[in-house]
């Protein structure tokens, strides 16, 4: 399974170094955070120097409704750089299939001019229900994408954006019916760029929820068994979980808004302060603060990953990494977890994942027994939802995990 960098603001040299360290396999660029000129330069440089690295652009067309707001934060996306395909749209406009086709044509023609390795077709976000006007519009994007892509006469693959808010995943019957419709197409794309949306990138429980995670897993599994490639945007620590069910790639970045997909990224800014640097522990399947790592690493050495990027958390500095290097540790840990959990078949992958969840629980219990209190985000409240998600998915996919 591949791991891609989810590009965003303050990129600096992070992506170049991640590629040099061989801990990311590609990049999904964000037009909101890079000018057209710099994007074209970056893509060409990558193609010439590292042709095996995937180079993708998320069109971010789902922000078209937010673009009508006076306080929207569209960055370069709202400037002339991307006017060839992006402008404010209303739902009423997109209810006309002709408008959908126009957006597809403009976006795909725009990408054809750039050195991408595959095209990502645009789409809108389905906010509340898979049986809604927005879902009908989204299906029109999916159904018409391949025909417009064929007109480009290119050998590049086509992935179609499928963006669904977590609230729209709750009704399992609607999800099943929706999947049945998009997996039986006369002219299918190569695959899908999947986005599962929360109301805010800071609301951890919205995505780390058994129903949400099991539905996300089922999406990947159903698409995979129907022959589609799946790239999961903003999947972060859940990347190995999705890989266990058949996903081809996941993505994550260096800020919380590059680890959880939310339309809040395009809305008014709430300000805030810089977060405390963290360490992604494979054993805990979670990030802990650098000070917690410093306190635990001697007594509980199993919280360390024993990977190259551990050196970035120097004990002589109180285990505090440089801010621009924290992401390398996250990328390496997730990539390594992919290797451990993504086996030859789904059943074996889920069994490996379940074993890791048990070990995580044991380690958390041992830490608790010595009286060490972890930060709320560092605690074990993610383990039960993930375990239940595995059970729900196995039930839905009719996979027996016990002998």
What proportion of the residues form beta strands (DSSP E)? 5-15%
| CATH fold naming of the largest domain | TIM Barrel
Q: Look at the structure and name the CATH superfamily of the largest domain.
A: Copper homeostasis (CutC) domain
CATH architecture call of the largest domain: Alpha-Beta Barrel
Q: Can you identify the CATH class of the largest domain?
A: Alpha Beta
Q: What radius of gyration results from the CA coordinates? A: 21 Å
- SSE arrangement, N to C: EHEHEHHEEHEHEHHEHEEEEHHHH
Number of strands: 12
Oligomer: single chain
Task: Assign the structural class, choosing from mainly alpha, mainly beta, alpha/beta, alpha+beta, or little secondary structure.
Answer: alpha/beta
Question: What is the first-to-last residue Cα distance?
Answer: 27 Å
Largest sheet: 10 strands, parallel
* Average predicted local confidence, pLDDT: 95
Spans where pLDDT lies below 50 across 5 or more residues: none
How many structural domains does the protein architecture include? 2
Q: What characteristic shape results from the CA principal axes?
A: globular
């Amino acid at each position: 399974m591949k791991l891609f960098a989810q590009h965003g603001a303050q990129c600096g040299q992070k992506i170049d170094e991640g590629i040099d360290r061989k801990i990311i396999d590609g990049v999904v660029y964000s037009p909101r955070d890079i000018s057209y000129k710099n994007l074209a330069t970056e893509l060409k440089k990558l193609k010439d120097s590292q042709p095996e690295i995937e180079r993708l652009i998320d069109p971010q067309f789902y922000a078209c409704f937010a673009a009508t707001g006076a306080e929207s934060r569209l960055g370069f996306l709202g400037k002339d750089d991307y006017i060839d395909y992006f402008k404010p749209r209303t739902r009423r406009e997109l209810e006309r299939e002709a408008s959908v086709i126009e957006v597809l044509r403009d976006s795909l023609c725009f990408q054809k001019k750039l050195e991408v390795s595959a095209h990502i077709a645009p789409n809108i976000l389905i906010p509340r229900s898979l049986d809604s006007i927005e879902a009908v519009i989204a299906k029109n994007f999916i159904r018409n994408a391949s025909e417009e892509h064929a007109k480009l006469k290119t050998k590049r693959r086509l992935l179609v954006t499928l963006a669904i808010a977590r609230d729209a995943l709750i009704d399992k019957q609607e999800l099943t019916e929706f999947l049945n419709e998009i997996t039986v197409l006369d002219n299918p794309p190569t695959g899908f760029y999947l986005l599962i949306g929360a109301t805010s990138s800071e609301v951890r429980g919205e995505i780390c929820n058994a129903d949400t995670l099991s539905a996300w897993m089922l999406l990947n599994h159903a698409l995979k068994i129907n022959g589609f490639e799946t790239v999961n945007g903003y999947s972060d620590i859940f990347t190995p979980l999705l890989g266990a069910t058949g996903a081809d790639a996941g993505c994550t970045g260096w800020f919380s808004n590059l680890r959880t997909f939310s339309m809040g990224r395009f809305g008014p800014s709430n300000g805030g302060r810089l977060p405390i640097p963290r360490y992604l522990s494979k054993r805990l399947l979670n990030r802990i603060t650098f000070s917690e790592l410093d306190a635990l690493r001697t007594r509980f050495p199993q919280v360390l990953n024993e990977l190259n990027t551990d050196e970035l958390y120097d004990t002589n500095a109180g285990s505090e990494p440089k801010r621009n290097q924290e992401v390398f540790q996250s990328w390496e840990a997730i990539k390594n977890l992919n290797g451990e959990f993504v086996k030859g078949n789904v059943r074996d992958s889920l069994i490996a994942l379940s074993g890791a969840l048990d070990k995580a629980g044991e380690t958390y219990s041992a830490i608790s027994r010595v009286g060490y209190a972890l930060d709320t985000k560092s605690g074990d409240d993610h383990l039960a939802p993930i375990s239940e998600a595995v059970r729900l998915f196995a039930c839905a996919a009719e996979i027996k995990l016990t002998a």
